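Re: beginner question about structure tokens

> Can someone show what the tokenized structure looks like for a real chain? I only ever see the sequence side.

Sure, here's an example I had lying around. Input first:
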Amino acid sequence: MKQPLINSSFYFCLFLSFIFFSCGGKSTRLEESLVTQNEDMIVISPVFDEHMSFDLGHLIDSLKYVKLELTDESLIGEVTKLEIFEDRIYILDYNTKALFVFSIEGKYLFKIHQLGNGPGEYSQLDFFTLDRERRRIYLTDLMTYFIKEYDLAGNYISQVKIPYWNRGILPVSDNTYFIYSNYVNNSTNLPHEFNMFYTDKAFNITKGYFPYNSKRIGNSARNFANPQQGNFYYFKDHFYVFDIYKEIVYQIGPDELIPHICFDFKGESFKPDFLEKDPVVLNEYMKEKSFYSVSYCGESENYIFYSIGRSWERWSGIYSKHTDINILCNSFMDGDEFIDFNIQAEYNSWLVSVESIESLCYKKEKFAQKKSSGKFAHVTEGFSKDIDREDNPVLVFYKLTDF
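And the corresponding structure tokens:
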């Protein structure tokens, strides 16, 4: 099903106030909210169907698989996050606490896997950021609360202690960090808590957005989910941040947030006024999850790809920037074959997804019993003949026709 979408000028006019407080002996003025407008912001209006699938086969121009080389050093537990840069594939694996690097053809090159308490070592890996401009890899360990810096060859450079609880940290420049907190309790670390904020190199807050009081939220904070792949993505020389509990995707500017995409849920998104209600009421609201939320977002030159959740329901979507056509469904198909079209990266106009080895082995067994009607079933069948259940996950590259 295709849903037309109309772009329109979308104006933010949020209440702006200023707070002065002392942080590390330094007086800082904080903007609690952004007052701005962006006439070029994209507005996506999802239309939901509980039992909707979409045959993507006729929109796929090309499809290819890339097998990630399996060696004693490159056994992947799960693909937590995927990035592709300069013909290299970077895969964060939360299970094995490693960052794997492969060539674009899938050949294993090296990994960062340094467990311990010394310089360049970590206890776990929670986030991964690839800084293309400064050609750096940043790994965040939320067990010891350090952010580690490496060059693109995996050589350790430095580490910085993070003084705030957070669910995502991004070096914006050599002197600026951007932090996403997701309503964690920072009441002992900060006189004023913000869900998103900028800091200087010494972690003094310079600008804060979306204030909250974690003491009112209480134990409900454990029900605030965080996307497995994190809340940041990169596109065209800029980083972006999305929040499950907001309808807006923001461009992370040098010193301010700029509205970029709006998911218009017609008033059925998370209601911030619940943050001020009794913690018991908030806790029940969060458990029910009776609101729509964006659990993933990314984009390429032509498309925006995203996932939406509500309670236990899930939808995947792809939006064309050129035609304003929005495709949203519970599952993508190629004829009678399910497509794992959860796009995690973009590479030279290819959209890249991850398919589990279990899924491919299942398809392999089905092909042995009967032929599929899928347009690209022959590609999948030919590739699956050379895989087994001990292999690494596989990357699927899609090139779509214009729609």
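Each token stands for a local structural state, so reading them left to right follows the chain. The helical segments are 214-217, 279-288, 357-369, 377-384.
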